[in-house]
Structure formats: structure tokens, C-alpha cells
């Protein structure tokens, strides 16, 4: 499989003409995740956005929670220059500090199995609260995503594979939210998936 180049053309193709997610939609998602963190009494004072691309999560926090510290990273030199992120590869970079909320939206399915495993280990070290993850699985790529709008040049892995890797460090709360096992948060049985 050819490696996707995260260059100017990539961001024009997937974020300008017919975006999969608009800034407004990501704002709604950020608000929902932030609200869940408040509901769980896990206040968000620091955010790490890994593979931040256009930086919509960072922008929502800057506009709506200006006191929150946001650290956004990406592997793309183009994205880092244009959208102001720190140049980091999550398969090899392990942050020195921890964050209340870690976001990894639409990134893991670009990585090899070994890369995604390393990335998840690094996300787990970075996260002291909630991890938000979106990564389409084999089922999603076959049955759910809009193949005309989505980058299909990605790795296809089962939901079971992701659950096994993420479950070592997190409890799945649903809707993309994973609670770090470092946190003592007693979710009711029906508020989480079977552990
Ligand atoms: C589909 S875009 C998602 C961008 C953004 N998170 C969003 O949801 O709008 C995938 C992003 O992941 C970044 N990426 C891919 N591999 C990465 C890696 N190993 N480390 C950090 N970022 C990576 C790409 O450069 C690209 O910006």
C-alpha cells in the first residue's frame, strides 16, 4: 500500500472541497467530549491533540476554554507550518508530561500494526484522564464510511484489534471516549462496554 503523503494536496482534498468533518462539526464534538469530562468530574485543564491536521479541536478550546493549555502535534511538516503544531511522530514520541484530555482523531488507521501499537502506548503514557479516539475499522471502511469523501489509502484492522490494544490502558466509555485506568472513575455497568 502506498504511504499517504500529508502534503498541501492532502489537506486541500480532505478539508477544503468536500470535507469529511467541518470545523463546526468538530466544535460540536469537542463541546460534547468536554461536557462529558465535566459530568465525570474530570476537569479539562490540559489537552494534547495528536495528528491535529487543521487544528479544529485546538481552535475550539482556544475560543471556548481560553484557560485550557492545548498542545497540538502532527507528523506533517506542511500541517505544522500552516496550522501551527509541533512536529511529532506519535509512533516514536512520548510526551514528557501528562494531559487531562488526549485526542487522536483520524490518525491510528494510517499507521502500521506496530506503529499503531507504539502510538497507543505513547497515548496511554500521555493521558491521565480521557482519551478521545476515532479510527475507522475494517467494518467501517466496508460498510459505514463514505468512500468518495474518505481517504481509503489506510490500514484496515478489526474493532477487536483496537479494543485489545486500547483496553490494556483504558476502559471504553463509548462514543470514542476511553477512560484511563489511572483514573478512579466508577462508571455504571451500562455506561461502558463490557470489560
Ligand atoms: C485524517 S487527518 C486528521 C486530522 C485531525 N485530527 C482531524 O480529525 O481533523 C490525519 C492526520 O494524522 C497525521 N498523522 C499521520 N501519522 C501520524 C503520526 N505518526 N504522528 C502524528 N501525526 C500523524 C497526519 O499528518 C494528518 O494530519
Brief digest:
The chain has 195 residues and is α/β, with parallel strands linked by helices. Helix content is 37%, strand content 19%.
Spell out the helices and strands N to C: HHEHEHEEHEHHEE
Average residue pLDDT: 95
How many strands, what sense, and barrel or not for the largest sheet?
7 strands, mixed
The share of residues in helices is: 25-40%
The shape is globular
**CATH fold label:** Rossmann fold
Strand sequence of the main sheet, in spatial order? Answer: 3-2-1-4-5-7-6
Tally the structural domains.
1
Description of the molecule:
- By secondary structure, the protein is of the alpha/beta class.
- The chain has one domain (45-191): Rossmann fold (3-Layer(aba) Sandwich).
- Helices cover 37% and strands 19% of the residues.
- It is built from seven helices and seven strands.
- It has a seven-stranded mixed beta sheet.
- Helix 2 (23-39) packs across helix 3 (56-64).
- The radius of gyration is 16 Å and the shape is globular.
- The relative contact order is 0.14.
- The model has no long low-confidence stretch (mean pLDDT 95).
- S-adenosylmethionine is lined by residues 6, 21, 50-54, 56, 74-76, 79, 89-91, 105-107, 110-111.
Amino acid at each position: 500500500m502506498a504511504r499517504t503523503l500529508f502534503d498541501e494536496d492532502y489537506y486541500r482534498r480532505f478539508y477544503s472541497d468536500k470535507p469529511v468533518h467541518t470545523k463546526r462539526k468538530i466544535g460540536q464534538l469537542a463541546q460534547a467530549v468536554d461536557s462529558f469530562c465535566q459530568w465525570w468530574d474530570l476537569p479539562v485543564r490540559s489537552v494534547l491533540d495528536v495528528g491535529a491536521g487543521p487544528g479544529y479541536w485546538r481552535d475550539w478550546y482556544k475560543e471556548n476554554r481560553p484557560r485550557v493549555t492545548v498542545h497540538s502535534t502532527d507528523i506533517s511538516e506542511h500541517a505544522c507550518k500552516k496550522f501551527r503544531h509541533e512536529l511529532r511522530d506519535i509512533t516514536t514520541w512520548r510526551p514528557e508530561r501528562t494531559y487531562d484530555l488526549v485526542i487522536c482523531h483520524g490518525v491510528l488507521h494510517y499507521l502500521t500494526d506496530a506503529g499503531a501499537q507504539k502510538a497507543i502506548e505513547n497515548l496511554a503514557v500521555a493521558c491521565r484522564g480521557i482519551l478521545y479516539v476515532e479510527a475507522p475499522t475494517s467494518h467501517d471502511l466496508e460498510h459505514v464510511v463514505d468512500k468518495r469523501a474518505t481517504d481509503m489509502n489506510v490500514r484496515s484492522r478489526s474493532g477487536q484489534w483496537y479494543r485489545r490494544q486500547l483496553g490494556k490502558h483504558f476502559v471504553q466509555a463509548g462514543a470514542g471516549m476511553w477512560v484511563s485506568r489511572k483514573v478512579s472513575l466508577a462508571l455504571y455497568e451500562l455506561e461502558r462496554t463490557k470489560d
